[in-house]
Model the fold of this input.
Amino acid sequence: MFSSSTRTIPAHSPVPRHLAVIMDGNGRWAKKRFLPRVAGHQQGVETVRRLVKGCTDRGIGHLTLFAFSSENWRRPAEEVKYLMNLFVAALEREVGRMHQNGVRLRIIGDLSAFEPRLIDLIRRGESLTAGNEKLHLTVAANYGGRWDLMQAFNGLVQAYPEKAGNYTEVDLEPFLAMNYAPEPDLFIRTGGEQRISNFLLWQLAYCELFFTEQCWPDFDEATLDTAIASFRKRERRFGRTSEQLLAAPDNKTNPLAAVLTAPTLPAEFPDA
Ligand code: FPP
Done:
């Protein structure tokens, strides 16, 4: 269910409930190895597989991956074609395994631009896994944060024209593409760039950001744990002051106090 950090302060969680990832650096990974750029994308699929397992192992409930942005059509035509074929191959190969592992797959984005075969695989994968709950995996494909906001605004206006001029956040949220998930609380971008690149513009409002130089094909569980350890150290104030957090009677909403008073930390979070 959608949760809004601007309306309700989320309860503290030592592990992110929702991890959003920009998988960057595939091309550079390949170039360093004198391989074609697309070899980096191919290797990137292996990283996706590892991360899905890493998230289920750590109790992360939602994982959202930026696979293809609405601006990625600007890439060379052969690279775009390769990526589309890679999505087809990945869906054909991975959906059965995802289903066995309790993963629910959803794709967000403007799918109308895709080949019928890809759309069909997406729909079949989504319906096969619709009953799964262990990990909600969302893949953003031909997705842009501005596209999402515009399609949501348009949907809202069409549904409730009489309310024009008085719409609220609560009215808009059901129309967002990812209306079923809590807001991401941790965002990771690999590949050294430090930007959001038109990803989940609405949902990242209070998300903790983590950037790593590691290229996506090299991203591993150790870096995931470093990111989670960093997340655990953040003072998530949601507009409040540090003093208010420290005075809070219930440290469930106070990550800093929770870390300071935790009797023992699990071994997988050595830096927390
Ligand atoms: C950015 O790296 C990566 C992409 C635009 C594609 C990401 C896609 C995958 C990892 C394929 C698998 C995904 C799924 C969910 C099946 P880049 O090419 O911009 O790298 P660079 O910045 O080094 O050039």
The pocket of farnesyl diphosphate is lined by residues 23-28, 41, 44-45, 48, 65, 67, 72, 86-87, 90, 139, 191, 216 (CB under 6 Å).
